[in-house]
Design a protein that fits this description.
- The protein has ten helices and 14 strands.
- The strands form two sheets. An eight-stranded mixed beta sheet has the order 1-2-3-4-5-6-8-7, sandwiched between helices. Strands 10-9-14-13-12-11 form a six-stranded mixed beta sheet.
- It is globular and about 65 Å long.
């Protein structure tokens, strides 16, 4: 919820494949792939479909769709390269097409992600790691307007299914800049384990950068506990609530999506930083002033999302405990903040989960 004004560099709002540029720089277009390499994976039949999406290899006619997100400064924020020109995107697609068979170690397979309408909304990439034929790397990049919809998590999960079930890989890693909290949160959300921080591991854009490394093993991926329908419903409800507060480039904001997942008699409490004062609000006392503030001229960009969380579900009650991060642009200056939130849900007679109380505190 928009409150904090501490100046800081804003976090990434999309989910980039940080290592891709390095692999592209290493690629030699004059060095043809060897399709006879016995370690080359057997590919699935494309498109690979998930619940809402289709994944297929990138094509030359995807140029405009891929350029639409690769050209955005926010996409390139934590990448080793600057926002793409159309020419650079075209050259990148050519290199990726040349290596899509993953016949050589170090090749990347670029799968574009299409939504139900057929629109390309992003990319997921799989790399065959040099020296380790049973190890791969996953990367991802999405257009900012699908952030908060669950599309990125669904697509990356689909790519990991391909890596383990079709390619037979033993281990897949994911690497992101330590400042890229959105990418780190996604990898945690889908079950990847944070293994290391690689301090000052690359000198990029005139600065030393540190990376976070995540990984998941085939046995872990296949044995991941199936989350219940109720747990997924709680996820969707809280995602809709937090996502309603997103504002980009001064565009109008409606909090109707937040109202839709709040019980009419819900109680929202904000605990002051000193822990002494508690401010209690009903639904409209909480939402109305924030809707006005979000649509004003002072706060032009805003977003908040969970970084880590746990959910406890009983028969008709659920408790979600979250660490969340928020950032934006206020009066032309970036700000960010952290907070903890306890959200209680109740299951309606119709099977929907509604928020009936929120308690949050910011640090």
């Amino acid at each position: 919820m928009p409150e904090s004004t501490d100046p800081a560099t804003p976090d990434e709002t999309i989910l980039p494949a940080e290592a891709e540029a390095e692999a592209e720089a290493e690629a030699d277009p004059a060095d043809p792939a060897d399709p006879a390499d016995p370690a080359a994976p057997v590919h699935p039949s494309y498109p690979v479909r998930t619940k809402r999406l289709s994944l297929r290899p990138v094509r030359r006619d995807d140029l405009e769709a891929v350029y639409a997100h690769r050209s955005l400064p926010e996409v390139a924020l934590y990448l080793p390269h600057e926002p793409h020109t159309r020419e650079v995107t075209a050259e990148t697609i050519e290199r990726l097409i040349a290596g899509e068979a993953l016949a050589k170690a170090g090749d990347w397979l670029d799968l574009v992600v299409e939504d139900a309408s057929g629109r390309v909304v992003g990319e997921v990439l799989l790399r065959r790691e040099p020296g380790e034929p049973d190890t791969g790397q996953v990367g991802f990049a999405f257009h900012p307007d699908v952030h908060g919809t669950g599309i990125a998590a669904e697509a990356v999960s689909g790519a990991l299914d391909i890596a383990f079930d079709d390619f037979g890989w033993h281990r897949v890693i994911g690497i992101c800049d330590v400042r890229n909290l959105a990418s780190a949160a996604l990898m945690r959300r889908i079950g990847m384990r944070h293994e290391a921080v690689l301090r000052d591991s690359a000198f990029l854009k005139n600065a030393w950068c540190s990376d976070s490394q995540f990984a998941v093993l085939a046995d872990e991926w296949r044995k991941a506990p199936v989350r219940s329908t109720d747990e997924r419903a709680v996820d969707r409800a809280l995602s809709a609530f937090l996502g309603a507060f997103t504002r980009r480039a001064g565009e109008p904001v409606s909090l109707d999506a937040a109202r839709a997942v709040l019980a009419p008699e819900a109680v929202i409490e904000y605990v002051a930083e000193d822990g002494q004062d508690v401010f209690r609000m009903d639904v409209e006392e909480f939402l109305a002033p924030r809707e006005i503030f979000l649509n004003g001229t002072e706060l032009t960009d805003f977003e908040e999302f969970e970084v880590s969380w746990s959910t406890l579900v009983t028969a008709d009650r659920a408790l979600r405990t979250s660490l969340f991060y928020k950032h934006g642009i206020r009066d032309g200056a970036p700000f960010s903040g952290w907070g903890r939130q306890h959200t209680q849900f109740a299951k309606t007679a119709g099977g929907d989960w509604l928020i009936d109380s929120i308690v949050w505190k910011e640090s």
